[in-house]
Amino acid sequence: MLMKAVTATRSRKAPLPAFLHYFLLALPSLLLVGSLAACSTQTVSTTAFTQIDTEKSRISEDELLDVGIAIFEPGLDDIPHKREELTFADVRLAETQFVSYQLAQTLQGTGGWGIVRVIPNDLSAVDVAVHGTILQSDGQTMVVKVSVKDSSGKLWYDKEYKEVVGKYSYDSRNRRSEDAFQGLYNRIANDMLAYRQHNLDHNGLLTIRTISRLQFARTFAPQAFDQYLTTSGKGLIKLNRLPASDDLASPRYSRHLIALH
Question: What confidence tens digit (pLDDT) does each residue in 49-74 have?
């Protein structure tokens, strides 16, 4: 495996950890109560719901890009540090993990990716890295900023997403099985899938996968694998050449490849 993280399979969604399951059940009520107490004006909510786009064509195993999602940043820098706001900060910090896992579940469900993991540390050795920050979340409105890069350091896009829901989204009589803000996760997943489909051909996909695997291997044996990669002044990583067949067959390299899987 690339690193110890939440495991997801290519064929099915990984279950949420138990603490996130209970957090999911409690979060809507906590956020909505806080929102109603703090707001005296009404927000016009959207009734539009973005459906998830799924991969329609068959993708070969060697073209499936693995995705690593960093735990979202809480975006608390602009919030005054007052004692009465401690509960809100605690909820926001817990929410960063929930949002990250929810996005991972959504991406895995598109069928357009390999393994999707939430990774709390270094994302340099994954095919596609997703970083995000929660800019606003009050039960009615969620705004997140998302940045997506591949293993070569190329920025796919940097974008803000906003979703507004009404109080009826939390009514048990009307509520769907999905999270109230599932439409926001769907839009992120749709944009990532569209970028991959429109901007990467077979060779581009293989290059990204090769770079990430060499990145991982050289963390264990830098002298052996540094020669295959070059980093430009702009931070972009280029593939110089592939390891020779003798290197690929060597026990040292084989151990690294086994670790990747």
Answer: 899 999 998 889 989 999 999 999 99
